[in-house]
Every structure is written in C-alpha cells, then in structure tokens.
Amino acid sequence: MTPNSKDVLEKLRHYLAAGPTEGLRRFLREVHYADLAEALPELNLAQQIKVIRLCEPSKAAAVLYELDRKEVAALLEGLGEWRAALILREMSPDDAVDLLGEMPQEERERFLSLMGAAEAEDMQELLEYGPETAGGIMTTEYVAVRRDLTVQEAIDRLRATAPDVETIYYVFVVDGENHLVGVVSLRELILSSPSTRVADIMRTEVVSVNVRTDQEEVARIVAKYDFLAVPVVDDEHRLLGIVTVDDILDVLEEEATEDILRLANIEYEGRYFEAGVLARAGKRLPWLVVLLFGGLLAGNVIANFSATLSAITALAFFMTVMAGGPGNLATQTLAVVVRGLATGEVRPREVLAVILGEVEVATLVGIVSGLILAFVAYAWQGEVLLGIVVGISLALSMIIAAVIGSFVPLIINRFGVDPALASGPFITTLMDVCSMLIYFSLATFIMNRFI
Amino acid sequence: MTPNSKDVLEKLRHYLAAGPTEGLRRFLREVHYADLAEALPELNLAQQIKVIRLCEPSKAAAVLYELDRKEVAALLEGLGEWRAALILREMSPDDAVDLLGEMPQEERERFLSLMGAAEAEDMQELLEYGPETAGGIMTTEYVAVRRDLTVQEAIDRLRATAPDVETIYYVFVVDGENHLVGVVSLRELILSSPSTRVADIMRTEVVSVNVRTDQEEVARIVAKYDFLAVPVVDDEHRLLGIVTVDDILDVLEEEATEDILRLANIEYEGRYFEAGVLARAGKRLPWLVVLLFGGLLAGNVIANFSATLSAITALAFFMTVMAGGPGNLATQTLAVVVRGLATGEVRPREVLAVILGEVEVATLVGIVSGLILAFVAYAWQGEVLLGIVVGISLALSMIIAAVIGSFVPLIINRFGVDPALASGPFITTLMDVCSMLIYFSLATFIMNRFI
Question: Do A115 and A99 contact (CB within 8 A), yes or no?
Fold first, then answer.
C-alpha cells in the first residue's frame, strides 16, 4: 500500500468506528477512488458494503473496477440488486464488461438483466469480442461529430457530453454512415478560431485499429505515436469505439507478466496469487511432468554411456556444470531474443543475423569458460585428459546453447506463436540432452583413443 | 516495420530517386514522425541526412528522438553544426537530455554548446538527475498559472503556450514561490463558466512525485490514478516539471525488459542488440563464470559421494532430472514472485503467506512428480529402492525449491534491492547444490541401511 492509501484506511476505520455516517460520507466524497480501492480490501465485508453504499454511484463504480474480481462478486451480492445495478450502470461499458466477463455465466446474466436495456445491449456486444483484442478493451463512450460543424459547435458538443465520455481530448469526425473520416484534438480546437470548420483543421490520415487487432499490437501503436487514445473501426472502417492510454498501461503490464511467466513455463491469465493452491498446482504440474520426461531423455543418454562413467567416476563431478553452464547461457539468449521481439528491437526477418550474433558471443564466452573449467578440472583431479574433455565439451555445448536459445523462439515467432512459449525450462531441458550427448561422446572417444 | 512505415519507405525512395526536392518536402510535411523514424534506418546515411535536412526542425527533432542512439550521433555529425543545433533546440529538454545523456562526455558537451544558453542550462540541470528518476524523465515544459486567474484567462494562457508545452491537458496552480498548490484539467476548464476563478475549481489534493523518486514508482502512480501527467516537485514542494503518460509507456517497457533480462542474469541498460559482440560477451561472461564455480560446488557434493555413485551407477542416470525438475520449479516460483512484486499483487509484508502458499503448491506438485519418477525409475531399472530414493529426493528438493525461489527475491526486496536480481540461473545453481546433497545423502543412507 502506498502512504496515501494507508492514510485513507486509518481515516475509514476512524469514521466507521465513530458511528454517524455524515463524516464518512463527506470523507468519501473527497478521497481518490484509487486510494479507496487500495484501502478497502483491508476492511471486512460488512464494512466494505457500508463504505460502498455511502459512495456516490460513479465513485463506487470506479472503486469496484479496481478491486479483485472475486471480492467484487461478494460486494455486489451484499449491496443488493437495486444498488448493484445503479453502480454497474455508472461504469463505462468496457470496464463493466471486464468485470462481468470474468464472472460465471449465470451471475453475469443476472447482473446484465439488472442493468438498463441499452447498457446491457452495448455490453452484450462488447462481451462478444475477444478479451485481448481492441474490441475487448475499447470503450464505446467517445465524442464524434460531423465534418460540417464549426470549432465552437464542436467545443459546445464536448461540453455537453464531457460527463459521459472517457476522454474529451480527441474529437472524431464521422460521415453519415459513421465511417471515420478525421480526428481533431482538443488542443487543436482550443488553438483554432471558433468559426473555423472542423473539416478544415481535422487530420484526415487517422491511424486506427481494427476491432479484432490483438491488444499487444494496439499498445505498440499507441506507444509508437504517443497517442492518448486510438479509434477502433470495423472492416468497413466504421467507428466502433476508442482505446484510451490508461487501458494501454494495463495491457503493457499484463503482456509483460504473460511473457515473464511464459518464460518460466507458466501459462496463467489473471492474477496468479488470487488462485487457490490446487489451481496453481494444476497449472504448473503438467509442464513440470513433461519436463521430467525430457530430463529422463538426458538420463537415458547417460545410461547409454554408463561404461564410460563406471570407468571414470570423476566425469560425474562435472555433470552439473556441464548441464548448468550451457543451460544458463541458453536462458540468457532466450531472454534477450524474446524481449527483443516484444519491444520490436529484433525484427522477425533478421533471424540469421541474430543467431549469428549470439553464436559469436557464445563462442567467446564458451572458449573462456571452457579454458577456466579445463584448468579447474586439471587442478582438482590432476588429469590432463579430463581437463581437455570438460573444457571442449563446455565450449561446444555453450555454442549450441546460443543456437537453440535464439533459433527456437525466432522460428516459433515466424509461425505466429508467442516466442515466450519457448520457455527457459523447455530450452534448458533440451540443452541437458545435447550437453550430456556431447560430454559423454567426447569422453568416450578420448578414453578409447588415449587411455 | 508496420504497414504504414513500409509505405512511407517506398514513397521516400520514390521521391529521393525522382530528383527535385519539392515533392519530398511536401511529403515530409504530411508524414507522421513515428512512421518516418521507422522507415529512415533503411536508407543510407547520405539519404537520411537529405531527408532530415528537408524536414521542419520540429519534425526532425521528433524523428531523431525515435532513432537508435548511435545513428543519431552520425546523423547530427552529417547535418552540420548549425542544422544540428536548430533541431536540438526544437526538442523538449527531457528528450534532448535522453539523447545527449547516452553520448560520450565530449560529444555531449559539443552539442550542448551548440544549443542556446537557456536551453543548455535547463538541460545541464536535467542531466544532473539520475536517468531513472522522476527528474531524469520529466519535462520542464508545462503550463502553470496563479490561483487568482479566471477560467477564461487560464484558457487564454493555454492558447498562448500550447505550441511550446508537451501537454495542455493539465494546468498546474502555483503560488508566488512556485509551490504546487493545485491542479485543474483542461476538461474541467472547458466545463466551467469562463468567469469562475481557477482557485474555486482546482483540486488542492494534488498527487505529485519527488524529483528523486524512482521511475518505476512514478509509473505505478500514473497507472494507479489513470493520470495523463504527474507533477514533479522538490523537497520544498516547488514545481520542477511534469512526467507525461507517453514517457510512462516507455518506462514500463524499459522496466519489463530490465526484469526479464535480470531474471536471466543479464544486467543491461539500453538496447542489447545495438551493442557489439565483445560488449555483449563482456556483460554476460562474469556471471556465467561465477555460476560455473557455483556448479562446481554441486560437483564437489557429488565427488564427496563418489563411493555411493561407484556402487550404484544408475544414480547418475537420474541426476539431470534431479537437478532439472527442482530447478524448473524454482524458476517458476521466482518468476511469479518477482512479477507479483513488480505489479503490486504481492505486498512486501506478505512474505510468509507467499512462501507458505508456494510451499503448499510445491508439496502437491512434488508428491505427484516424485510418484511418477519413482514408478518410472522402478520400471526402467527394476530396483524398488532406487525408485524410492529418486521419488523422495525429487519431492523434497521441489519443496525446498519453492522456499528458495520465493524466499530469496522477497528477502532481497526487503533490503530495497530489485528482486529480479535473484535471477533464474543463480537460483537454479543454488538448487543444484541442494538437490545433489539431498539425492546422494538419501541414496547413501538407504544403501548403507538396506543393501
């Protein structure tokens, strides 16, 4: 909790204990919804309901949107149907959809039926777009005007609609069939003379996104052009809604979380720590078991060389280094490539250049690491040949680690799959097989030849 | 490249080939700077210089800011001092500082001396704040007014300064000594009657950040309150600048990159792929060597149990699984905890609850994985005792992996260190030592007792 919300929590407790509701009501009018939302979960459900009941419906809506989804369901339940409907109607449709979209079908329909017919229809429409598309994150509350309005008329229009829309900083210009034909910012309106026609100052080359565009792509466009909002259109270029920059901040956070968890081989949507132990274990177990069998493949390689291992037990002492070193290098390569692809620093067509660059790095790193390990092995075990085997094996495995760590994410990205799915555990397990194969093959070769 | 920039690139090539510059100049007036910045690197340096020379200085500044830093240095060089100074002066001070901050001291000072005295002073000041603090990313171009202005006067003031400031959507209210006393949004100004006093509609509880606040914290505040900009103040609460939401988008991307690379044990600022092979190898080698010695610790554990290993060679077949499985689980735990801390889902004081939760998950996962491995080992090697040893060791190691994977990042976070520094490779190397110790201790115990 930030210092602000701590302060808010203390005051809430004070007012709740004090008895009469007037002080609490006044305090709730002044407090910022974001602070309130952070403090609220620290109260018990009865207190939460009391607080929400005393909030203005619009503030209550803003607070509910920030809370954990399962808390919201309990709260709405506790508030009673009439009050719950009042609050839901105050939410912008995209937020309400976010909230209801995560509820079970049954509850969702009950709440939808509580809302007004028009709102429910808007929302039913929004619910049909994929949650991670432009349609899923857009709001339908924006300002659109016809091209023949004057600047003054447009500003008056803004004044009239401002309380109901998410951003008044862009005014979109549409034709008779709602096709998007231009955009003008409030900044430009303010700077123009009141009698100018909107058509004369609007920009006609409007960057827009299709309703089915992936949210990650929408985020990239907003970031690229430094937009405060981007219009969403259908296939006929009709304006359907807008995505605002505050939602883009959430998208960026969500996508970074998805990538970080995917890199660790966890596929999880929503908030991980909100899920129960069984759900968390259920998500993680299947892949861990698959990787277990992957690890047994490497074990099988070792078993095939058990004669070599029996002859030279010291080979076992270097197995963790031989698996770990190249595994770490592969993890690093994977991370830089996956992140490079996500930020656009690596362009998908540069596959070969990226792989070659990483191989060059690995060659350097591998030779130095190999020399160090060779020296350590010789110093520790007093065997020159053992030093040569571990040194060369480590260097070779590291070079192959760079190839696998860069090639796999780049190639699956080519096929339109999220490169982060080539997770670290998957790559290191694959590397274990390669490293053991190289290590024991070389050891067997040297042993048969020189010992 | 997005479709837009491909189109821009084609047109640029067309106009460059066509000869007369008038068409190109007209095209450059219309094109969006972000598209131009994406297309430009595909041209050769002479062409780039020609294009930038024909751009309006303000557009040239916006384009330069988007380019890779080393390209910018070459371009500024090629443009000549006079034109370079013209363009740099058009940049907002925070962007110019970003650009010059990454140049070598000598070049930086040459470019600073090219700029006007006032701008250079502003920038010198900005350069003194850490690049990852509020001061480092703020702009000094904002609109501030006195509280006794009317709404109409404030709007007039906005009109006058709009071309020079980054955002006109917030007007900050200051007293005679520049202390921040309130804020009013353009939305509120537009909605109020022109004769109202700013003091009557401004919000006085302004959320602000200190000039030394870390950029990650600034991003969190902007995201929490859905701000378009947040004011930056000094210790006496004097207004120094603002951080706008478009810079926050960059911060979020930067911080996610930093976390992903740190989790893979790479400490890298700036763009990784822009660095040469030697720089990349130099960044990665030291830690890989440290981890190599970490791996040798695990090897040392194995060496201490070489009698056991010689007696039962089959133990070696399960070493990769025994190191890999708990390593993967630790990597997953680390990822969810580090990400949870970054997004605020995990609150720093919940250390114990988080660890216990993850241990419960690992216990479930460990028992199932252990049973599977025990069965596989028995089926493969036909030894009941071997199955018991590998099964119990795997389950135990996985539980310990959950403790280490959650405890280490939580504890270093407590000491104010970025939890992502508890990287995957570091954690898995530590786990290797633990797993080998458990595995061989248990095997030795069972062997001495039952065989």
Answer: no
pLDDT digits 0-9 by tens, A207-261: 999 999 999 889 989 988 888 899 999 999 999 999 999 889 988 888 888 888 8
Instruction: Classify the phi-psi angles of A167: left when phi > 0, otherwise alpha if psi is within -120 to 50, otherwise beta.
Output: beta
Please check whether the domain covering B272-450 is classified as CATH 1.10.260.40.
no
Q: Where are the beta strands (DSSP E) in A223-300?
A: 229-233, 239-244
Interface check A225 vs B, CB under 8 A: yes
Domain with CATH 3.10.580.10 in chain A: 144-261
Give the integer Cα–Cα distance in Å for A442 and A391: 11
Interface of A with B in 240-279 (CB under 8 A): 245-246, 248-250, 252-253, 256-257, 259-261, 263-266, 271-274, 277-278
User: Chain B window 374-433: which residues touch A at a Cβ cutoff of 8 Å?
Assistant: 376, 424-425, 428-429, 432
Specify the pLDDT at position A197.
92
Neighbour order of strands in the sheet with A144-146 = A144-146, A170-174, A180-185
| B259 Cβ contact partners less than 8 Å away, ≥ 6 residues apart | A256, A260, B338, B339, B342, B418, B420
Segment B33-74, tens digit of pLDDT? 888 888 888 888 888 888 888 888 888 888 888 887 777 878
Q: Which of A45-49, A91-95, B129-133 has the lowest mean pLDDT?
A: A91-95
User: Where does CATH 1.25.60.10 sit in chain B?
Assistant: 3-128
pLDDT at A319: 92
According to CATH, where is 3.10.580.10 located in chain B? 144-244
B88-102, B340-354, B394-408: which is most confident? B394-408
Distance between CA atoms of residues B220 and B198, nearest Å: 29
Compare A108 and A53 and report the one with higher pLDDT. Answer: A53
Measured between CB atoms, which of A288, A295, A429 is closest to B329? Answer: A288
Is the per-residue pLDDT at A327 higher than 70?
yes
The backbone torsions φ and ψ at residue B182, rounded to the nearest 5 degrees and listed phi first, read -175, 175
* B58 inside 8 A of chain A by CB: no
In this structure, whether the domain defined by B144-244 belongs to CATH 3.10.580.10 is answered with yes
Q: Which fold has domain A3-128?
A: MgtE N-terminal fold (1.25.60)
Greater model confidence, B224 or A390: A390
CB-nearest to A335 from B266, B316, B324 is B266
Helix or strand (DSSP H, E) at B144: strand B144-146
Average pLDDT over residues A159-165: 74
SS3 of B339-387: the string is HHHHHCCCCHHHHHHHHHHHHHHHHHHHHHHHHHHHHHHHHHHCCHHHH
pLDDT at A329: 92
pLDDT of residue A404: 94
- How many other CB atoms are there within 10 angstroms of residue B167's CB atom? 21
**Are B109 and B79 a contacting pair, CB within 8 Å?**
no
* Structure-derived torsion over alpha carbons of residues A7, A13, A17, A23, reported in degrees to the nearest 10: 50
Residue bearing the bigger pLDDT, A366 or A3 = A366
Long-range pairs, B47-56, Cβ under 8 A, ≥24:
B47/B12, B47/B16, B48/B75, B48/B78, B49/B75, B49/B78, B49/B79, B50/B16, B51/B12, B51/B16, B51/B24, B52/B79, B52/B87, B53/B79, B53/B83, B54/B21, B54/B24, B54/B25, B54/B28, B55/B28, B56/B28, B56/B29
The pLDDT > 90 percentage for chain A reads 31
Q: State ipTM.
A: 0.77
Task: Give the Å distances, CA to CA, from A207 to A131, A197, A222, A224.
Answer: 22, 21, 10, 11
Do A373 and B428 lie within an 8 Å CB cutoff? Answer: no
The fold for domain A144-261 equals CBS-domain (3.10.580)
